Amino acid sequence: MPEITLLGWFHTIIAIVALLAGFYTLAVYKIISLENRTGQVYLVCTMIAAVTALMIYNQGGFGPAHILAVLTILALVAGFLVSKIPAFSKIAAYFQAFCYSGTLLFHMIPAITDGLLRLPVNDPILSTFKDPLLLKFYLLFVVIFIIGYVFQFFWIKKQIAAV
């Protein structure tokens, strides 16, 4: 793996702040939203992390991490816009939760990849992007996302029914 540049460090620190805020927000509020401070921190830091990811080309060109960054930006924009369009008011909370929680999945894939390929510093756990362990982590993250979203779906449904 190439050395981390100053932009890479900035991106990594912002992404870690986003992840911490995102997991905290889910644990406390059950969904990520702009209605609470930690949700705002998560969403802003996630946007910054996605934009800065598009400026990092350590692997020689536009790659999977860039695709995830584009998907993250699209999910953030879609999650925001759906709550502003009256025609989508019945599904807005569900779709927004799906989009915003999906960005956590998009964070975790490059985070685990980069972490396992870089750490520990002089003897990384993995040496290639094609290691089967990475695929197992990716699958685990997708399963956790699906299970988490199902819980969010029913939590949102319960909140709406209570109103």
Q: Describe it for me?
A:
This protein is mostly helical and 163 residues long. It has one domain. Helices cover 72% and strands 0% of the residues. Helix 1 (6-29) crosses helix 4 (92-118), helix 3 packs antiparallel against helix 4 (92-118) and helix 4 runs antiparallel to helix 5 (132-162). The longest helix is centred in the last third of the chain and has 31 residues, at 132-162. The radius of gyration is 17 Å and the shape is elongated. The termini are far apart. The mean pLDDT is 94.
Short description:
The protein is mainly alpha-helical. It has one domain.
- The total of beta strands comes to 0
Number of domains: 1
Which value, in Å, is the CA radius of gyration? Answer: 17 Å
Q: Number of helical runs?
A: 5
List SSEs in N-to-C order: HHHHH
What's the pLDDT, averaged over the residues?
Answer: 94
**Largest sheet properties:** none
Low-confidence stretches: none
